Amino acid sequence: MKKLLTPKNITFAIIMVGMAIAPLLTSPYSLRILITAELNMIFAMSLNLLMGIGGTVSFGHAAFYSIGAYTTACLWYHFKWAYSTSFLLVILITGLAGLLLALPMSRITGRYVTIITLSFAEIVNLIIKNWDKVTLGQMGIVGIPSINLFGFKFTNKIQFFYFTLIFVILTYIIMNWLVNSKLGRNLQAMRDDSIAAEAMGIKLFPNKVIVFTISAIFAGIAGSLYAHLMTYVEPSTFNANLSFNCISIVVIGGLGNFSGTLIGSLFLSILPEYLRRFDFLFKYRMIAYGLVLVIVMWLNHSIPGGKLKEAVKGFFVRKDKMEVA
Amino acid sequence: MSKFLQILVNGISLGSIYALTAIGYSLIYSILQLINMSNAAVFLTSAVIFYALYSSITAGSVALTFILTLIAAGALGYVIEFIAIRPIREKGDSNTYALISSIGVKTILEQLCQGTFGSEIKPFPTLLAGKYINLAGARTSAIQIIIIVVTLVILLGMTWFTQHNRVGRGLRALSQNLNACHLMGMPVNTLIGLSFTVGSMLAAVSGVAYCMYLSSISISVGSAIGNKAFAATVLGGIGELKGAVIGGYILAIAENFVSGYWSMSASNFISFAILILVLIIKPTGIFGKKEQKKV
Amino acid sequence: MPLLEVKDLTIRFGGLVAVDNLSFTMEKGQVVALIGPNGAGKTTVINLLTGFYTPNEGEVRLNGENLVGMSTDQVVEKGLSRTFQNIRLFSNMSVEDNILIGMQHRIEYGAFLSLFPNSKKNHWEKEAKAETLEILKKVGLEDSLSEKSTSLPYGKQRKLEIGRALAAHPKILLLDEPAAGMNPAEKQELSTFIRSLLNEVDGILLIEHDMKVVMSISDKIVVLNHGAKICEGTPAEVQNNPEVIEAYLGKKGGHHDVARG
What we know:
The complex is a heterotrimer. Chain A has a single domain (7-275), classed as ABC transporter involved in vitamin B12 uptake, BtuC, CATH 1.10.3470. Chain A is built from 16 helices and 4 strands. Chain A has helices at 7-25, 28-53, 62-79, 83-102, 110-130, 132-135, 157-179, 182-192, 194-199, 204-230, 240-253, 258-275, 279-282, 285-299, 308-316, 319-324, and strands at residues 141-142, 148-149, 152-153, 232-233. In chain A, the strands form 2 sheets. Chain A has a two-stranded antiparallel ribbon. Chain A is globular and about 55 Å long. By secondary structure, chain B is mainly alpha-helical. In chain B, a hairpin with a 2-residue loop joins strand 2 (132-135) and strand 3. Chain B starts with a helix and ends in a 14-residue tail after the last helix. Chain C has a single domain (4-260), classed as Rossmann fold (3-Layer(aba) Sandwich). Chain C contains 10 helices and 10 strands. In chain C, the strands form 2 sheets. Chain C has a 6-stranded mixed β-sheet, sandwiched between helices. A 4-stranded antiparallel β-sheet of chain C has the order 2-1-4-5, covered by helices on one side. The radius of gyration of chain C is 19 Å and the shape is globular. Classes of the chains: A mainly alpha, B mainly alpha, C alpha/beta. Chains in contact: A-B, A-C, B-C. The interface between A and B is large, with 51 and 52 residues.
């Protein structure tokens, strides 16, 4: 039982309790921001699995988010599918996309992963922009209804909020199960030292494929919820900045630290909205966001004390440099 | 035949712009193994600075505006390194943090440009507007020729600079082994700052050249060219200067041929299709060196 | 049939012949040491045996089965497990997790069952953790179970790495310079420890620079120079072999004793 009461889990519980009572205290406008924060939580936790546990920095995670959003949007637009049915296809298609991206990973090392993931996101975006028949191209798909679960339609944002919160909690719990299992251990071993991991008999490639697939599925779920929240999807939303934003959340929250990711999501979702209030800042509000990134990197502090430096050193620093140091 | 030539000329002039920006990525990557995301934002910022100066202080003088823009871009590059990269580098942190920091810089610069410049498309001054030269049937605008010539001069200059100059040798040494350079007492920080300056100035040249080529400027030029230039860098083999240049030309020429003989929307795909193909066949890019697995 | 039979093993890197027609055998219950000057190709041999490199020619037979062409994870399953010259522990993981990684190929539940609690997962996790404790007791680290691996002192890190290799239940343990960086007292203790490992595994292949350690625990010594075997025999035979003395000390070496190492 003592394993459950870790500082991370306690942080998680506090945030969740705070979130659960939040709708009682906030305006509809703030609630919308909190739902965005929830989506970011799921999205960023999926990336943290890949980055913090799997040791692979994906600079194209927005691709899976957009695939999830477009899958549910297109299924509604063309076939009028309800969320409860399209959800399964969201999982299937984003999972396959994750699998596809993982395939070249067997041939490349650390830094080329950056490049491949960036290109992958760019290609997915180009496809969405140009596949007019299915995605309606630049126009985007508008008028997506709120979530419909087996005939039960969500009529207000509070229902949506709690529904998404359930996903956040599930994601957190599944991530923790995963980390404390054989798969999670193997992934962490590969992250720390891929050669030693191989020498211990870990098959690198299947593990990479699996972690990419799982990560893609959760990102896709977040994206599918996004489509129903916003009621529209358009290609320009899912640009590289969305991926960068997600990376920032993960890094600020601490690599491999899922409760930190929750705090990072709240922080980076609320900050830009908060800055909207100042008229003179409105035009430049994203600058503060950029500054936060630089300063956090500069201080090398993740908010809840995740030990950033050590967590990535083994994987990212070039081997020849490590030997000198 | 004349259509072929026309497309080739267009491809080469666009390729020159890709190549110049790509060198900026490659140069810094070769030294720090850092993908400097702020490079595309410097491209945009320089064009905006040029536009702002030209329409106010230095109205009318392209040469003077250009020189001032270059100086500003160079200084900007140094400042970016000094503020956003150096503190992280000196702590010995992983490149991922520097990379994220450079994304922060990119966000700041893009937002500054958007805030001051606005989001509409505006006319951009160009050189010898409306002048065309007929090259065996290919209608070539004067600015295209200027871009190609300037790029050639810069490339030759860069080659000379890295091969026969003390500073260039220093930069090459840095790209071989940063730690050894530190231990040898080389002014590593100054040299790295300098490489950011050079990279930014190249981005400035290509930013201004691109807007002159379009004779218009909008806030989206940075990301459009930035992505392509990055793709070019990877295609040629990141960290290899000649790779960046050749990658730039390959992509631009391929794009122009696809849009000329096939369709515009397909040309958007072709760069990334080529990139994927090369990465599948040779993941380190055309000129990239193979990484040895060390056990 | 010998436990391990290496036959005409050759690998070339470009023009360099890193391992040249190497043959030797290991019987059950033996400690075989591979020695030679720096750059003789000792670590390359281990990389060849464990499937990190594929030899250009030759065979590696474990109980008669040829391992050449197998991937590293297959070789581990067949029963070869190694340590590294410069310790390669999983630095951000606990001591316990490091051992659990060593036995991961014996834990029989897959990726899908990793995602949620189920009886199969619980069963295997319980078994694996119990066994981990036993292994840690053997290498004397049972008190450091939840410590981070890199926070251990150097000597214990070496022990942990050996423990991790043992966790794979190997038939043969491959130790790459286990005594490097240790003081004489630690080396003495390590020698006894290695010898005692023969209760756990069928054979041990040892690469070591420290001649005292090698001479005291080996049943058989294979001497490499420039990738080729120059001599093979018991410690006593090797010590007096003029070719070995020459390889270590050069032609004018005279009567120096290799044992001084």
